[in-house]
Amino acid sequence: MQSTITPWEVKGDIDYDKLLREFGISPLKDLPKVFTDDLLFRRKIVFAHRDIQKILDAKKNSKPFVMMTGLMPTGKFHIGHMLIARQMIFYQQLGAKLYIAVADIEAFLARNQPLEQSYQNAVEDYITNYIALGLKPDNCEIYFQSKRSSDAKKANAYYRLQNILAKHATFNEFKAVYGDISPAKMVASLLQAADMLHPQLAECEGPIPVVVPVGIDQDPHIRLARDISQRIKLPMPPFIQLSSTYNAFMPGLSGGKMSSSDPNSFIALTDTKADVEKKIRKYAFSGGQPTLEEHRRKGGDPDIDVCFQYLKFFFEPDDKKLEKLSKDYKSGKLLTGELKEYTIKKITEFLEEHQKRREKAGSFISKYIR
Amino acid sequence: MQSTITPWEVKGDIDYDKLLREFGISPLKDLPKVFTDDLLFRRKIVFAHRDIQKILDAKKNSKPFVMMTGLMPTGKFHIGHMLIARQMIFYQQLGAKLYIAVADIEAFLARNQPLEQSYQNAVEDYITNYIALGLKPDNCEIYFQSKRSSDAKKANAYYRLQNILAKHATFNEFKAVYGDISPAKMVASLLQAADMLHPQLAECEGPIPVVVPVGIDQDPHIRLARDISQRIKLPMPPFIQLSSTYNAFMPGLSGGKMSSSDPNSFIALTDTKADVEKKIRKYAFSGGQPTLEEHRRKGGDPDIDVCFQYLKFFFEPDDKKLEKLSKDYKSGKLLTGELKEYTIKKITEFLEEHQKRREKAGSFISKYIR
């Protein structure tokens, strides 16, 4: 099947090697221990980059750097969203300053969601979950695209940059990157480029290395921001070229894309134990064989098994245990039903603790939204 | 000759009646005395409108209203710019709150002028001249597109509106209005629409009648802002439809367009007496006859005579004197050279007084830029 990857759709099977070649990005390798201590890097869930050396150098030399990311406050916060959330927390612990954009203008322009609803979703679901996952308020600036800052200088500078960027992009460039384009999408793209670049403005940090961790499908946004940024001569000092990292797609329950609009494709962080049991038992795509006899004989395929992937992405932090699960599954010793029940146990244990932390998180929101 | 009127060019002869028919705007008539007391309205230099009744009603009922306009801070401030400046002061005296946008983003996007240079031109030339012409600091908000406000709420709201407007316009609409279109022009247009509409946001005045006085060539901007504004359902209360007035073009010295890029096409408000004498004697297009004998016999045509037009627009406020000049010129009694010398006298008298006021104006700038 032909695969299609744009920021607007992911279709078909994903050939990661081909993506790397086509997009001109590099595999992540020879990372220092502070990175590989984190399972996302160690297990190559975050697997590729552009210009990561700038960030490694900053860390090595104890120089400041920024991690910039965004959230689209549509739909429920689910385990797929934890990929970026975990990276936020990783970089924060590494010493980065975080810039986190709530893409409420993009949600309005591209998905017709009113700003009020985006505000509510972002605060009550996304940011509350970030806090429960371990995000700290220090060195962390969460803002809404529709109201950048209560600091007027910063607000003016951010939107000024969006306007200035328009001079450095052509319609053909937007079309080449995004396919179909409308004034709304174009303006949203310019604002997203401003999101990535504005931490380097004088009103923010000044020129500084910035890493933007994304799914590989978001690379067109990165390319556009990188390209435009290097054309700007005036009225600011040159931008340091953006760094980016790329994470694999976390599969949806049935093995396709995890979609906020299909509750049976994901596990939400507000799901109950009963939800998890039902979803995993009923919907989780299995890499096992059709019959018990066949499974015992041929074994299962963990690479396409959704439960195994979920354990690998998040829920089995112990490498040895994960390795044993993989081995036993491949040999046919571990059955699909057993793997599903183990996954249910790990996810519900996680959710039980998480939901307790989530209860307390709400009262800290005001430390994050300033 | 075919005439072409877009915001980017004015070519050929202007058939005002045709413009009115094509653009669907109405002649200004039956104005109250407070308007016709001003020569720009009395002499039909401001000659047409859309929805002016909203402004007349506000004035009649002592309700608040806004006059919004902008300045493009490229080139020298010349007598052509006085047309809008005079209207600013007229509306301010009438009781309007003024919103005056320095279009520095547009100057950058459309004309490649750095923001710093726009700031300098705006402050040292345009705004200084406004003050010398009589603009008062009260009830007057002058702002730069690149830094809307030192009030963060207002700044965020203004740029939020620009972004939201993108959802309510199509590429075809921009093309229909502007002809050729680029991301830069499109973004500048959206910002200009935000300029016209944002006085009605909750963070500014709330819904309020707003009049935008423009040259007829600027009507495409007005149409776009009016059209888009009526499609916005969320996230703000409906906008009151914009009112607009249209003024005639003030001819350049040689009879064509007055162009900031051609110093011999205009008289700057910083010109010396010698400059004025030279420019009027050498360049001012005359409606007189080629020879003295022929002029005495056939008479001149004040309607195409640049000096007569300048007197009519600004420099001869006495209607009876203007009428006599017209009559004497048509009859051949008044010669071209005599009309030119009279115009030089009136302009230099004006400039002498103006330049004295201009000297003092600089020290008041900080009251206008807040």
Q: What's the arrangement of secondary structure elements?
A:
The structure is a homodimer of 370-residue chains.
Chain A: E1 4-6, E2 9-11, H1 16-23, E3 26-27, H2 33-36, H3 39-42, E4 46-50, H4 53-60, E5 66-71, H5 82-94, E6 97-102, H6 104-111, H7 115-133, E7 140-144, H8 152-165, H9 171-178, H10 183-197, E8 210-215, H11 219-229, E9 243-247, H12 273-283, H13 292-298, H14 306-315, H15 319-331, H16 336-361, H17 365-368
Parallel strand pairs in A: 5-6, 5-8, 6-7, 8-9
Antiparallel strand pairs in A: 1-2, 3-4, 4-9
Helix pairs in contact in A: 6-10, 7-16, 8-10, 9-11, 10-11, 12-16, 14-16
Strand arrangement, major sheet of chain A: 3-4-9-8-5-6-7
User: How many strand segments of chain A?
Assistant: 9
By CATH reckoning, the class of the largest domain in chain A would read: Alpha Beta
Tell me the fraction of residues in β-strands of chain A, as a range: 5-15%
Q: What would you say the CATH architecture of the largest domain in chain A is? A: 3-Layer(aba) Sandwich
CATH superfamily of the largest domain in chain A: HUPs
| Secondary structure tally, helices of chain A | 17
Strand-and-helix sequence of chain A, N→C? Answer: EEHEHHEHEHEHHEHHHEHEHHHHHH
Helix content of chain A: 40-55%
Biggest interface, chains and residue tallies:
A-B, 39 and 39 residues
Largest sheet of chain A: 7 strands, mixed
Uncertain segments of chain A of ≥5 residues (pLDDT<50)?
1-11
Oligomer: homodimer
